[in-house]
Amino acid sequence: AGGAETVDSAATARPGDVLEYVADFHNDGASTARGLTATLPLPAGTEFVPGSQHPAQVQASLDGTTFAPLPLKHWVKAADGGSHEELVPTREYRFLRWAPADLAAHADLSVSARVTIAAAAAPTAANQRP
Question: Cα 26 vs. chain centroid, distance in angstroms?
Fold first, then answer.
């Protein structure tokens, strides 16, 4: 209310609401865990909120296999046969990955990002019940 941020259960979220995903890691071991890669999936029907990621240095992926630094770009073929690079819409991002890090013994690491819930698809003849 009044522009203030509130925290509610994701079960009550509606289109347009913002969800924050957090992944917490803890090293219970006696030695440093080296090369930890933290990957956070972003569900279909959501759109990544740029700049909401923590830590800030993150890579994104459309398929969970190929990752690249933000913002993601792709080549588009033009009508004249040429091609040019365009930004990939953030609604197409499906995974975020933080580079390998070392996690000291008994230490914690937390990664997070926010997404907006996409508007529900408008009813069509194909998806309406009789």
Answer: 21
